[in-house]
Amino acid sequence: MAIIIGEGRMMGGDATIAALTRRIEVLEAEADIRRVQARYMFLCDTPCPEFGVRDDAHRIDLIMELYTEDAVWEGVGESYEGQFGRAEGSAAIRAHFESFWGEKQDPALLLNAHYLTSEQIHVDGDEAAGQWIHMQPWLFSDGRSLLRSSRLNNAFRKTGGTWKITRTRTENVFVTPLPDNFAESYPSASVLMLQ
Question: Does position 182 have pLDDT exceeding 90, yes or no?
């Protein structure tokens, strides 16, 4: 018995099963990668909405679980290369996040939320690349607000059955001020995922 598989191609039993298996594996990989990228952004939100995150040190530990040991985190392009630089390996990436969350900032960051769009995920076996555009409002304790947009070009590897980030590469699209006291209300802590 022959079965038609995409673009009018006909395949027999074993070949059909193999082709369908490959297609399912790609779809599952895309879904897993989408969840990894979304969780990374979720953990970077302020206030952090993930239930059970005790403090920023714990938040960083959870973020680092999403990365391979040999990963790279880098800002590229005119604005981000100088602002973010390049961190190679998990120790350097951890230090990058600790510099952001590890010290008291003045003015304090009260709210920051990441919105991902324009997704493209390309899977090639146990390696993959993904591109997104993200928008991110920032609200500070002194009343200032800004809107940041970036392009992401990230890489992923399946390691021990789990997809992890091997590269985060971000490039500025724009940063623009918003009116002072832009948001009328916002949470001081997230209770969205409380049990």
Answer: no
